[in-house]
Write a structure and sequence with these properties.
two-stranded antiparallel sheet, mainly alpha
Length: 344
């Protein structure tokens, strides 16, 4: 059953546009998928290394702005008149550049903060998110500031001169998000189930013991930060080319809070946790909208989250795993997050 469940889940996701003809709900699934990818990237840090990034939305926004600017082109003056002119690149190229720049930002943040440890990573990530938000807001010549970058081109796939397909509609964008999400999931899975992933989990569980065994703390944590930031940048690029307009509000702290909620309630340190949390807290507001006022929606949303954290402190996925193992007569559950996640 465990082996067939992932294939059934993939088949279900692939079939959604075939029977879901409501474009609004398809839009909700696309945006939910984008933020679920970002939650997956945060889970790599929070769940498998124990590092909380409260500025994770910065990497998402950097990926979005970089991908959009690379695709739109720009003409700016810096350092007292030095002019930089960039001609528009294809959206797919801009998307790759956005991932690269976000990953480089993750490397810089990791190098700065992981050498001093403790709460410095949280402080540095929050500060970085605020800095990039202010840059996006005030560098009007480059980012248009509060006026927003608009007319961002959608993705175009194919071979120039032979066959090309522009992803204008919601169905192509749904499959684009699904493809990027699948690649991100496979990458994270391969990483956390490898020797590197075991080292990351060891650092989370008992850092002094892991260090005594020769594990390079800074090296593995910086690697996790780079991969996590790159995946978040990919999600930001998807968002920019799907919505086709972005402004500095993309760096709002509420988006980081949403990612943390998805990870913690779903089950941090499991591969399936961000997927379950993302689906629940992406779809729940839409389900509540016709039944309650906006104020009541937030109350229900908060109460539901508190109930999950109170009754299922390890998250939904570990609770379901424990129930299933007790039902099947398994006496000992997996103890590390990577192995737990790998079973779903």
């Amino acid at each position: 059953m465990r082996r067939t469940l992932p294939y059934l889940w993939v088949g279900f996701l692939l079939s959604v546009p075939l029977w879901l003809h409501d474009q609004y709900f398809l839009h909700i699934l696309i945006t939910t998928g984008i933020f679920t990818i970002t939650a997956m990237s945060l889970n790599l840090l929070l769940g498998f290394t124990g590092q909380l990034s409260l500025g994770h939305v910065a990497f998402f926004g950097v990926g979005a702005y970089t991908s959009a600017l690379a695709s739109l082109g720009f003409d700016v003056h810096i350092f007292g008149g030095f002019r930089i002119v960039h001609q528009p690149w294809p959206a797919v190229t801009g998307f790759a550049v956005g991932i690269l720049v976000a990953g480089l930002c993750g490397y810089a943040i990791g190098k700065l903060s992981f050498k001093v440890r403790e709460a410095y990573f949280v402080i540095v990530t929050i500060s970085f998110a605020e800095v990039v938000r202010l840059v996006a807001l005030n560098w009007v010549e480059l980012t248009q500031g509060p006026l927003a970058l608009n007319n961002i081109p959608p993705f175009t796939i194919g071979f120039p001169g032979l066959w090309e397909q522009t992803l204008w509609g919601k169905v192509p964008n749904y499959y684009a998000v699904l493809a990027v999400g699948a690649v991100a999931h496979i990458l994270i899975r391969r990483l956390v189930l490898s020797r590197i992933g075991r080292a990351m989990v060891a650092l989370k569980e008992n850092e002094p013991l892991a260090t005594s065994l020769g594990i390079d703390v800074t090296r593995f944590l910086v690697l996790a930060a780079v991969v996590s930031a790159g995946i978040a940048g990919a999600a930001g690029g998807l968002y920019a080319h799907y919505i086709r307009i972005i402004d500095p509000d993309i760096f709002l702290f509420i988006y980081t809070v949403t990612m943390v909620i998805m990870v913690v309630t779903g089950g941090k340190g499991t591969l399936a946790g961000p997927l379950v949390g993302g689906i629940i807290f992406g779809i729940l507001p839409v389900m509540l909208r016709p039944m309650a006022t906006p104020e009541a929606q937030w109350i229900i949303y908060g109460v539901f989250m508190i109930l999950i954290v109170f009754f299922l402190p390890r998250g939904i996925v570990p609770a379901v795993q424990d129930w299933w193992q007790s039902k099947m007569g398994v006496t000992q559950a997996p103890v590390d997050g990577a192995r737990t996640g790998g079973r779903l």
